[in-house]
Amino acid sequence: AFQEALDAAGDKLVVVDFSATWCGPCKMIKPFFHDVASECEVKCMPTFQFFKKGQKVGEFSGANKEKLEATINELV
Fold it and tell me: Could you tell me the sign of the dihedral formed by the alpha carbons of 20, 25, 30, 32, in that order?
């Protein structure tokens, strides 16, 4: 599903954040991501927002891998 989502993005930019609580550089960039989350009105973590052609087409919160995969498959 992940590779399918990347393939479907074509020339569009896809940003994937891999981080860990023990990672020093991750801690340094964290305030920036918090600012972006605030601008996007994210109220809880994890929150997933889905965009197509610059428009938000979906969102959900929670660590539900089945819902994440289903939503990606639905939107690609």
Answer: negative
Q: Do 26 and 19 contact (CB within 8 A), yes or no?
A: yes
Residue ranges making up the domain that contains 29: 2-75
Dmax of the chain from CA atoms? 36
Name the domain count of the chain: 1
**3-class SS of residue 55:** strand
Low-confidence ranges of the chain (pLDDT < 50): none
Active site residues: 23, 26
Give the CATH number of the domain where residue 38 resides.
3.40.30.10
What's the pLDDT at 15? 64
pLDDT of residue 22: 93
